[in-house]
Amino acid sequence: MALARFVQDLGWYTLCFVDQLGKLAVFAAQILHALVSPPLRVRAFVQAVFDIGVLSLIIICVSGTAVGMVLSLQGYNTLVRFGAEQSLGAVVGLSLIRELGPVLTALLATGRAGSATAAEIGTMVATEQLDGLRMMAVDPVDLVVTPKALAMTLAMPLLSALFIAFGLFGGYLVGVGLMGIDGGTYVSSLQSAVDFRDDVVGSLLKALVFGGLVGLIATFRGFTSAPTSAGVSAATTSTVVVASVCILLFDYVITALWGV
Amino acid sequence: MTTEPTSGAAGADVHVALADVRMAFGDREVFRGLSCAFPAGKVSVILGGSGSGKSTVLRLIGGLVRPQSGHIFVAGEDVTVLSERQLYGVRKKLGMMFQDGALLDSLTIFENLAFPLREHTTLSEHAIATAVRRRLDAVALTDVDALLPNQLSGGMLKRAALARAIMRDPVILLCDEPFSGLDPISVKRIESLLVRINRRLAITIILVSHHIASTMRMADRVLLLLPSGAVAGSPAELRRSADAQVVGFLSEERDGADDAPNAAADAAAGRI
């Protein structure tokens, strides 16, 4: 009896998952269609870049610096055991560029901008603003969703680059200023270890994919939220949870496939 | 209004018609075989208790929700068979005033009213500004251009929503509870506004209301949604109805919701 119930529940959740996945695919197709169809929503896009990118600057810069400092401290303490502290720049740089930069930026942007995007669109659903747009013969996917999803996608590599830059700076501060490593050694180690095409471009592409994921999930959750305050709350929460898990899963897949 | 017309060829004087519409949300069935018609150029009011599906009728007409079965004809087109993109063509003929306004909360009142014109016309900014001023004057709103929707009172918000709904001179105006939550003076003001719009522009108005008094004053036709089914007729016909449910509904509402507005209106006029 319990087994039957388990199988029944499993079947139900699988159906729900496939249903949601299908709806997400249709939603993504609608966004792509809106992207290539006139009119271009430049004003809405610029506003979304400001909301998602500019307003995230402080958290990205502060977090990047802090992560770089910790990384440098931990790296130095490990490397010094093997007499390899001269490689600190390479360790900090590769860790930030290949992995921590894009992943942590995406997680931070999900918490700050992704949840805000879902809440904003969810509130528009609850207050019938999206229905109001539909009744004015304006497609809400075109006007509201697409600029936000696009802004999230394009802002993520820039935020990630900024995170990495501040991380390297934080690492330099601790490694050179606190631990007494030579500044030239730190920078030359970094330069010789990091390959622009494989590491930097790969890292930015990774961030671009994460941006697309977060943008799609946040707008989808907001757009399909129940028209109640609880619905908005659930959309916000699920955006953070689903997007964070997806970022980590996709990080593995991208690393395995692209080697970035 | 009739409760049975609704073939594909809705009569020339019928602007909106529902034919054998079944609508359910999950397990809860709202309509089973609802048929009704709303005549062109007239004010039609949909009455009914809470949860009777009044607002759903408006959302069905606007294509915001789709029925499980049946047909809905709006200005000659069956909206139930149109795609979302095709629906936009029909919606350009419609104006809708939502219960809570549904104005875009990040835009000022001026921008909210200018929005449909900027989206669908090539008018100059000067022409748009003139049109917005004219509509704001029509709904007796002044000095609100730069305000955000959340800075307006309930009555002002309703009037701003009405102004936006008529910005593009729709042929059919849908109003969802335009009088709810308003003081009696605001009720009278919006009522007279709607009547004036109807008489001057010959717009077909379909509105959902709880206010029996205003309904009886302004409606040309009334659709009463009762648990046993829909009853339609002119206000006079409904008043004369011997149907126990109709009599019960009208008297209950008269004893309840309409007393307050009337008393307050009397007070405002200095009669109390």
Largest sheet of chain A: none
Shape, per Cα inertia axes of chain B: globular
The helix tally of chain A amounts to 9
Percent in helix of chain B: 25-40%
Report the sheet-strand fraction of chain B. Answer: 15-25%
Report the average pLDDT across residues of chain B. 85
Question: Strand order, biggest sheet of chain B?
Answer: 6-7-8-3-9-10
- CATH architecture classification of the largest domain in chain B: 3-Layer(aba) Sandwich
| Sheet with most strands of chain B | 6 strands, mixed
**In the residues of chain B, how many domains can be counted?**
2
Whole-number radius of gyration of chain B?
19 Å
Mean pLDDT of chain A: 95
Number of strands of chain A: 0
Structural features, described:
The complex is a heterodimer of chains A (260) and B (272). Chain A has 260 residues and is mainly alpha-helical. Chain A has one domain. Helices cover 86% and strands 0% of the residues of chain A. Chain A contains nine helices and no strands. In chain A, helix 2 packs parallel to helix 6. The longest helix of chain A is centred in the middle third of the chain and has 39 residues. Chain A is globular, with a radius of gyration of 21 Å. By secondary structure, chain B is an alpha/beta fold. Chain B has two domains: 187 residues, P-loop containing nucleotide triphosphate hydrolases (Rossmann fold), CATH 3.40.50.300; 68 residues, no CATH class. In chain B, strand 4 and strand 5 form a beta hairpin. Chain B is globular.
